[in-house]
Amino acid sequence: MKAVVCLASASPRRRALLEQIGVPHTLASADIDEARRKNESPVEYVQRMAQEKARTVWERQSSLPVLAADTTVVLDGTVYGKPRDRAHAIEMLSTLSGRTHQVLTAVALAISGGTQLRLSDSAVKFRSIPAEECASYWDTGEPRDKAGGYAIQGLGAVFIESVTGSYSGVMGLPLFETAELLRSAGLPCWCTIER
């Protein structure tokens, strides 16, 4: 099946989610500076990241629409990105332990007419996590490249008491918002699904 969109991501989770809704795609990495700007709100940050990823890849190749996403974990106004190391991951998970945090995922679609954007905002409640369990989780290797230091779709699922909002958004690509963007650009879902 011929690709209808380019996914600007190296994330296997985002690729799997796009495959789940039957959207044939190619892959490209955006390789942008992901530093947060001074006084930039978490919403502004995640939206800017998604847009910059989409635009960067679009400017390199404009043969296909470019879909990009960015996810961040927020608690009390603090952004929790990917952990720097073991100690940072344990600190993050200990801070999130027993509390409800926000997961913001922005998804952007760059096309010839410009860039469109959608935002998914979910709440994730963690059970209490002892420090030794946080350390054991780090040792599995899973949290190393995950916003907030955990993966909802992986071993980190055992920490999650409840989710309000988009499960796929917490994974990194909100499928409702993604499908809306694709539909608005005349791009179909379910292309790869046998009928």
Short description:
The protein has 195 residues and is an alpha/beta fold. The chain contains 6 helices and 7 strands.
Note down, in words, how this protein is organized.
Strands 1, 2, 3, 4, 5, 6 and 7 form a 7-stranded mixed sheet that branches. The chain has helices at 12-20, 42-60, 86-96, 131-139, 167-171, 175-184, and strands spanning 5-8, 25-28, 66-75, 78-80, 100-111, 114-126, 160-164. It has a single domain (5-184), classed as Maf protein, CATH 3.90.950.10. The chain has 6 helices and 7 strands, in the order βαβαββαββαβαα. It is globular, with a radius of gyration of 17 Å. The protein starts with a strand and ends in an 11-residue tail after the last helix. Helix 3 crosses helix 4 (131-139). It has 195 residues and is of the alpha/beta class.
